[in-house]
Amino acid sequence: MVGAENLKRIVDQICRDKGIDRALLIDAIEEAVRSAVRKKYGTRREIEVQFNEDLGEVEVFQYRTVVDEVYDEETEISLEEARRLDPEIELDDDLGEKMDNIADLGRIAAQSAKQVIIHRMRDAERDVIYEMFRDREGTIVNGIVQRFERGDMIINLGRTDAVLPREGQIPKRSYKQGDRIRAYLQEVRRDTREGKFRDSQLILSRTCNEFLIKLFEMEVPEIAEGIVKIMGASREPGFRAKIAVSSIESDVDPVGACVGLKGSRVQNVVQELQGERIDIVPWSPDPARYVCNALAPAEVSMVIVEDERKALLVVVPDDQLSLAIGRQGQNVRLASRLLGWKIDVKSQSRYANMDNTEYRSLLAVDGVDENLADRLFAAGITSAPLLAAMDIEQLMALARIDQDKAQGMQKAAAAMQPSKEKTAQPAPDVQELTDQEPVTPQEDQSIEQGG
């Protein structure tokens, strides 16, 4: 007999506390005892293990074949001995005999049984957690910060813990143990043996676009009712976000619905995201109108749409360029992600220069980008031949490069022109701009889709 008088009570308590199916737990105990018996007596014996509900104990039976002469005591039993146990037994019958000498299975066997039970209980508990949370994947859950592990947060959700990875945390906000937190349940996993977060079935995020969308769904009744639809979102968590909305009813303003009375609705979302600035953008099926809305508050003069490349050339007044691009390109980068199109923002003066053949010849020189071409053009260096002939020191100052790069640039410019043309050009009268701000000191405004 294996077990104790309290085994049945222990089984009931574990099932109640852990939510594990009773049949699964009993099966795990039977398998553990079977493993322990085989560990002690070997694998040649035919063993059957059963949990006796009435006695509250595990019973082990050994089956042997009835023979005239015994050659293997582990698998055979004599007819004489068998008939003492069962008078009606015949030769070649299989006789089951309860093993009463296994109360002490030994330390190694007991340890093996313990490991089997733990393993099976973990599997059963994982199944319980999976079934409990699989329908909640893609929703917002509430929890309490339990502890920190190598930058990841372990969040207690009541019945189990979830992990909020470092990359899923908003950088501006720091939490401490015991704080309440809301997050998006990004993934519910059945198998935890593979992947980055082993032993973690529930993966959370506060930085994904879906978290922002779900917060608005919770705050705005019109979204929950389906009157206002969220058409897209893009975020730089903790700093800035854009969300595009539309309405299926003409008399409902989607932007106003999301903003709320005196900004109350959007402010609730902003507070949850620790001050993340949120731009609510009216969606449009026309990409030209859509990009104008997405780049607001910057004014847009012209939009050129290239459908095949899914690219937009946006021209803005010179004084609106910085506003359209945003700090470190953030505004146009978020707009590009929101639309799913490549967006190239140019000022009106630069766009006008693009029609100039000489300006384009400057851009064709290896090492000359649009910013440098603007500075050269403003300084009177209006073509590649003039660039090749200009003073090396002035080129170094304008381009902010060393002598080797400046010489390489001039060599590339000279190689673009016929030899006669190179020698015929007089040295240009360069305007001194080294102490002035460049005409358009913007970084590269070509933002690839996905940023």
UniProtKB/TrEMBL annotation:
Ranges for domain S1 motif come to 138-207
User: Care to name a GO molecular-function term for this sequence?
Assistant: RNA binding
- Matches recorded under CDD domains: KH-II_NusA_rpt1, KH-II_NusA_rpt2, S1_NusA
State if Transcription regulation is listed as a keyword. Answer: yes
Question: Which InterPro entries does the entry mention?
Answer: DNA_repair_Rad51/TF_NusA_a-hlx, KH_dom, KH_dom-like_a/b, KH_NusA_2nd, KH_sf_prok-type, NA-bd_OB-fold, NusA_N_sf, S1_domain
Give its localization: Cytoplasm
Q: Where is the composition biased (Low complexity)?
A: 407-417
Q: Which GO terms describe its biological process?
A: DNA-templated transcription termination; transcription antitermination
Q: Region Disordered: what ranges?
A: 407-451
The answer to whether UniProt assigns keyword Cytoplasm to this entry is: yes
Report the family membership: Belongs to the NusA family.
Quaternary state and interactors: Monomer. Binds directly to the core enzyme of the DNA-dependent RNA polymerase and to nascent RNA.
- This chain's protein is named Transcription termination/antitermination protein NusA
Source organism per UniProt? Desulfobulbus propionicus (strain ATCC 33891 / DSM 2032 / VKM B-1956 / 1pr3)
